[in-house]
Amino acid sequence: MLESVKIARRQSEIRQALAALVGKENPTADETRQIETLDTEFRSNEVRYRGALIAEDTERRAHGDDLETRGEREYAALIGRFELRQAMLFLEESVPLTGATAEVVQEMRSRNGYRGVPIPLEVLALETRAGETVASGVPSPKITAPIIDRLFPASVAAKMGALMVSIPQGSEEYPIVSSAVAAAWQTTETGAVGGPTPYTTASRTIAPNNTLGIQAKLTRKAIKQTGDGLEQALRRDLNGAMAMALDNAAFQGTGASGQPSGIMVGSYSITSTAVAAAATWAAFRSAVVNFMIAAAANSPGDVNLLIRPEVYNKLDGTILTNTAVSEWDRLKRNISNSVMSANALSAPTGAPLATSALLTTSIGGVPPIFIGAWGGIDLIRDIYSDAQSGGVRLTALLTADVSAGRSQQLQILTGIQ
Predict the structure, then answer these.
(1) Is residue 5 classed as helix, strand or coil in its secondary structure?
(2) What is the mean pLDDT of residues 106-127?
(3) In degrees rounded to 5, what are phi and psi of residue 414?
(4) Can you give the C-alpha Rg of the chain in angstroms?
(5) Per-residue confidence band for 416, with pLDDT thresholds at 50, 70 and 90
(6) Of 343 and 179, more confident
(7) pLDDT tens-digit readout, 271-284
(8) Smallest Cα–Cα separation from 343: which of 264, 398, 281?
(9) How far apart are the first and last CA of the chain?
């Protein structure tokens, strides 16, 4: 307890005691001495109270940042203790939620509407599992897999500089400057400087028009036999499917059939250059130079590169004549953040086989890609579809959308053989 609070409470007690004593018409000698003692203590406490307030104010100023962010850190700590097992038992057997899980669910329900049990995105782990939870394939609860706190920062989209935006409701719009305001010198002593240049912006909107979902079918045997192990299996299943689908949609989304418009497919006015040649550092170097000419990057180190594993194989296998240096070595010396993914980019096609690559840069604090998510994952329980066998179906839903930032911060290379 703060010292000022302790003193304030003591002052209140003294006032109450004095009120009882001074109300007497003929106080005794002992009561008179008690009044004098309490009065002296009261005046002394006033000095101590002012000193305590000054000291505590200094401490508040010194720890201001910590106090302002404490709420966010406490909520993050609650999410770290969220138990998906409790959500499963609540849906299956109506067992009440308790502890950190109940607090997180209550907080999420106050911000968004959920039909089922809301699950924070940060709860999911990053591991995938092969096989189904039926018959002999039911996982054993003997070993509990370690939990990794976050899903999206390890995704390909995050490594390419994408900004993950949490949106409570409605749409999110990002005005981005599209004009090139220029300065001009005064040509004569009495002449005017350059005329006003229109300052225009282009808006990037993220809207809740796309919902990603996954279904898990749990048999009665799996529920009864696995116990806590079912939580880990569900985390891996939900994460594996949603992480791959989100990464794929961020780059390859068709904009049709419920998918958002991905960066490689959508109409974002991104410069696309046809290489139509074997993969070499020179092809990527030209794109990096274009970034620097457009003032979107200061050096090759500011650029992120996304390629297929087949392109890496070609670059690393191409050795410069009379050297032990490969084209991949030359690329890595200049571009430190190179990401390889067979999920974010389409497979090579044609003869000879050719694929595409994406380059992004986040200089200036503006991300090249926006990925919006509305709330967390909504976990819904269906007890009717498999009621005859005692099974349960779980549906996990996530509403998300994708949009590009400034077109000058992205470049697409096609026809990389």
Answers:
(1) helix
(2) 71
(3) -115, 165
(4) 32
(5) very high
(6) 343
(7) 888 999 999 999 89
(8) 264
(9) 70
- Between CA 4 and CA 14, with CA 9 as vertex, the angle to 5 degrees is 120
Counted residue by residue, the chain has a size of: 417
From the number of C-beta atoms within 10 Å of its C-beta (0-12, 13-18, 19+), residue 113 rates as exposed
The structure tokens 């782990």 sit at 125
- Report the distance separating Cα 67 and Cα 55, nearest Å: 16
Burial (0-12, 13-18, 19+ Cβ within 10 Å), 369: buried
DSSP helix/strand/coil, 272: strand
- Separation CA 238–CA 56 (nearest Å): 48
Tokens linked to 9: 């409470």
DSSP, residue by residue, 336-394: SEEEE-SSSSPPPBTTTTBEEEEEEE-GGG--SEEEEEEEEEEEEEE-STTGGGT-EEE
Alpha-carbon torsion, ordered 286, 291, 292, 298, to 10 deg: -120
DSSP letters along 116-149, please? SEEE-GGG--S----S-SSGGGPPPTTSPPPPPS
Chain centre distance of CA 30:
69
Reference 398, options 203, 223, 210, 232; nearest CA is 210
pLDDT of residue 313: 92
266 burial (CB, 10 Å; 0-12 / 13-18 / 19+) is middle
How far is the C-alpha of 216 from the C-alpha of 242, rounded, in Å?
A: 12
Beta carbons of 121 and 76 less than 8 angstroms apart: no
**Model pLDDT for residues 162-194, shown as the tens digit of each residue:** 887 777 776 766 666 656 667 778 888 888 887
